[in-house]
Design brief:
One of its GO terms (cellular component) is endomembrane system. The chain is built from twelve helices and no strands. With 303 residues, it is an all-alpha fold. It folds into three domains: 96 residues, no CATH class; 90 residues, no CATH class; 74 residues, no CATH class. Helix content is 62%, strand content 0%.
């Protein structure tokens, strides 16, 4: 779903919104003051505030109760803090089910869509994170990205085997970079903590999205500074860059933003008489994205 309006009938006056604003301001202050672990401290503090608000005001969830309630999870103190995870879906895989249910052509289009989206989501996220961490070379390339993509692909497969979403790289990793993470040790620690979190599900389920989202806003503010390297004086560069930035949040997809950017870049440079300066690979990628955006209409026609 794409956001078409702000709040409910144009109003964002609600307790969850107030908690979110508190979280943004608190984390912003902690980052400015260079407090170690500021984002984590901010999330915990905001969660505590959210729990107090819920206990006093009884806001409740937004689904089926109050449109102005909490999204995804309600900040209520759990009856227990630990539990055994349900692993019944692990290994519950049907490799060829889609091909028999919706047909070979439609299933192939779906696989193409997933691969293209996953690849460019990963490329865009890795490049952005690498640049923010100062790990890219002078040309803006991330050293060792080939090995990183192998891990990315393996994670995507492992996610499927585990009957979970793709274990791809997420932009939330920027919060670790903001705290100083620069080596693979940070990833190992994150993985170990995720394993431990499996047994602490009742505890972290009380963290509402309104307490976690402020961290992404703060990190986004840090990462947006990278646009200073874009030459906005040239419209053939400015428009693709602008569309890339705005399409991502409007469509909830990094791949969509990158795709629109590729297509616009190629079209504008060709229109400006610079078609020969466009690398052949860019033409190929732009064509793939045209096919990517046409997948849904084609699939609907076939099914």
């Amino acid at each position: 779903h794409v956001p078409v309006g702000l709040g409910i009938d144009g109003s964002i006056a609600s307790w969850p919104t107030a908690v979110f604003v508190f979280g943004v301001l608190l984390m912003g202050v902690l980052v400015v003051r260079r407090v170690p672990g500021g984002l984590l401290i901010g999330i915990v503090a905001t969660t505590v505030v959210a729990a107090i608000v819920e206990a006093v005001a009884g806001v409740g969830p937004s689904q089926g109760t109050d449109p102005k309630g909490w999204n995804l999870s309600t900040p209520e103190v759990p009856e227990k803090v630990a539990g055994v995870p349900d692993l019944s879906l692990v290994g519950n895989v049907d490799l060829f089910g889609a091909f028999t249910r919706i047909g070979v052509i439609a299933a192939t289009l779906l696989v193409f869509t997933l691969v293209l989206a996953n690849f460019f989501d990963a490329m865009g996220t890795m490049t952005g994170l690498g640049k923010e961490a100062g790990l890219t070379d002078k040309a803006g390339n991330l050293p060792g990205i080939g090995r990183a993509l192998v891990v990315e692909g393996t994670g995507a497969i492992a996610g499927g085997v585990g009957s979970a979403s793709s274990n791809t790289v997420f932009v939330e990793s920027a919060s670790g970079i903001a705290e100083g993470a620069r080596t693979g040790l940070a990833n190992v620690v994150t993985g170990v903590l995720f394993l431990a979190a499996m047994f602490l599900t009742p505890l972290y389920e009380m963290v509402p999205v309104e307490a976690a989202a402020p961290a992404l806003v703060v990190v986004g503010a840090l990462m947006i500074g990278q646009v200073r390297d874009i030459d906005f004086t040239q419209f053939a560069i400015a428009l693709p860059a602008f569309l890339t930035i705005v399409v991502m949040p409007f469509t909830y997809s990094i791949a969509n933003g990158i795709g629109v950017g590729f297509i616009t870049w190629v079209v504008l440079h060709a229109a400006a008489g610079k078609a020969r300066s466009v690398h052949p690979l860019l033409w190929v990628v732009a064509g793939l994205f045209v096919a990517y955006f046409a997948v849904d209409p084609i699939t609907e026609l076939l099914t």
